[in-house]
Amino acid sequence: MHTVISREPSGTGLRPVSDSGAPAGEPRVIDPAGLADEVSTDESSQVRWTWDDTNNWYPALLAEGVRVDRAHDLRLAHAVLRTSVLSARTALAEAGPGAWDRLVPVPPPGGPTAAALLRPDRHPGAEPLFDLGEIAAPTTRSGTDRNSRREGDERPSGPDAPSGRQGNGETLDPAAELAAQLAALKDSTEPGRLRLLLAAESAGALAAAEMHHAGLPWRGDIHDEILTEALGPRPRPGLRPAKLEALAHRIREAIDAPPTLNPDSHPDLLRAMEYAGVGARSLRKWELEKLDHPVIAPLLEYKGLYRLYTANGWNWLDTWAPDGRFRMEYVVGGVVTGRWASTGGGALSLPHNVRRAVTADPGWTFVVADAAQLEPRVLAALARDERMAAAGRSKDGANTDMYAGIVATGAVESREHAKVGMLGAMYGGTTGVSAQVLPRLARAFPQAIDLVERAARAGERGERVTTRLGRSSPLPGDSWAAVQGSAFDEDAGADAQSRARSQTRSWGRFTRNFVVQGTAAEWALCWIASIRRRLWAMGEASAGATPGLAPVPFDRRPHLVFFLHDEVVVHAPAALAEEVTREVRAAAEEAGRLLFGDFPVDFPLSVAVTESYADGKG
DNA sequence: ATTGAGAGCGCG
DNA sequence: AAAGCGCGCTCTCAAT
């Protein structure tokens, strides 16, 4: 049972729709302010709340203390059904692109991204889901404060935000779209897989909104301590931190450069180094490390600290975690493979050296869980390669390292060879150790290697490939075909041909990786969907909720605070850490079964219970 | 002043 | 050791 929530001229529309897409009751229009009550009283009946974009509705509900169990995000679902080969022969996919294809993700409210997206110059050709015309235009930001939070950034959201109409005047009819999607599922070649994918995608959208709402606990004082220790005290605006300034001085001395040399200017620095005879042809870390010259040590140290200062320094702290929480702006399904992306704050590349600032609240703790060697295990299951799966299976409950297991089969000599060999197989490596051991892996695990090879060949032919649950890769763009075509011209030069060949192989590497990375993303989506359901269920009893009274909000129970491709962080009352650990492990088993049924593949986790994220593996 | 590129590095 | 997949972010510099 679905309830479609929509923005109507006279209020918020609620339409009951059966799983077949037929109306299942009288549509109603309610006062937008009453939506939270409506949702919370209906939550017991297992309704799937259906809306255009989760971020248009859910943040406001969370703000009122209402958690949603199940949802259907029409924008995300449409994107999957539009491109999946499993639903290619359905009315939805055969219809031309429409308003639902032009939607862009709605940013979570209250953050810098929401304000930035209101600028009319963003996303030419695409329209945000809210109507620009009805929202006061923010003042244009200057370059220097582009990343700073400001007063007045809040935009209307949830029931107050117009969602029925787009900026270009096209209308979105959520009920009609739901009906089209349910029909597409029914008519697809693998309804079960696609249904699971859409459910997982929408559950992910709920989890992302919840993680944004709760925020990642962030100790600004510890972060400042890390920075001060590494860089010296926070400098006045426009100046370098003391340690960076000192290193800049040493760099100039080592290459006899004038005090005006700015080490941040790559061309200038490279020229000065050439003049001093350092022999560097780039400033890449791993190339500098090969050189022997007095400038190398201070330069490498400078680069490291410079990175910390510019990417995760005091400005970052002010912008992204000013109040003890880092509120990540996840973009669910933001990567072609189905992985999440993020905007702002670099949430998905949080450097290890600042993770010490991620500290649990007093009386609470983190459960940090990481799926060990997720992608090779996914590949083994995807290819139904029993021998590779067996290499990764845990013996007597011990946490088996899959790469060690591969070594134990005798296929390769060392763990390192197993690792780079598998990575090369999944990424399409053609050189070095990875290429050397590939034939041995192919002999030992023919099914698994064959799967990625076939995916690569398909991509090279310009075909789509598809993940376990049905997410298909995009077709190469028009310029791809143009380059291919030009290689077949009568007068095609050698470089046109080699360009075409290199492009072909490159797309093959993309599709080769797509099936593995994309299926791993689906496993992870199922994992967090299961975790969030389990945490909610266990929290009800343990949080001391009283029947008849308002339930304890999700962020006063064990709850997800971070998700990073194959890793989660749960923030939980310390006393519940063991129970949380059990549930997180059970969720991993459940995810494996959902994707691969009874195929005997293990997805072991490494789990740490810790006050600080820095202690949770690395 | 603003914008787009290239370089480089962080994460999985 | 620095190839091969997927991202976001910040810097400089040249073009507008």
Structure notes:
With 618 residues, the chain is α+β, with helices and mostly antiparallel strands. It is built from 22 helices and 13 strands. It is globular. The protein has 4 domains: 2-214; 220-320, no CATH class; 357-374 and 521-615, Alpha-Beta Plaits (2-Layer Sandwich), CATH 3.30.70.370; 378-519, DNA polymerase, domain 1 (Orthogonal Bundle). It has a 5-stranded mixed beta sheet with strand order 3-2-1-4-5, with helices on both faces. β4 (48-51), α2 (54-63) and β5 (71-73) form a beta-alpha-beta unit. The structure holds a DNA duplex (12 and 16 nucleotides).
What is the count of DSSP helices, taking H or I runs of 4+ residues?
22
Structural domains: how many: 4
Counted beta strands: 13
How are the strands of the largest sheet arranged? 3-2-1-4-5
Provide the low-confidence segments as ranges.
119-169
Shape: globular
Largest sheet report: 5 strands, mixed
Q: Helix fraction? A: 40-55%
Mean pLDDT: 88
Derived structural class: alpha+beta
Provide a compact summary of the structure:
The protein has 22 helices and 13 strands. The protein is an alpha+beta fold. The strands form 4 sheets. The protein has a 5-stranded mixed β-sheet with strand order 3-2-1-4-5, sandwiched between helices. Strands 11-12-10-13 form a 4-stranded antiparallel β-sheet.
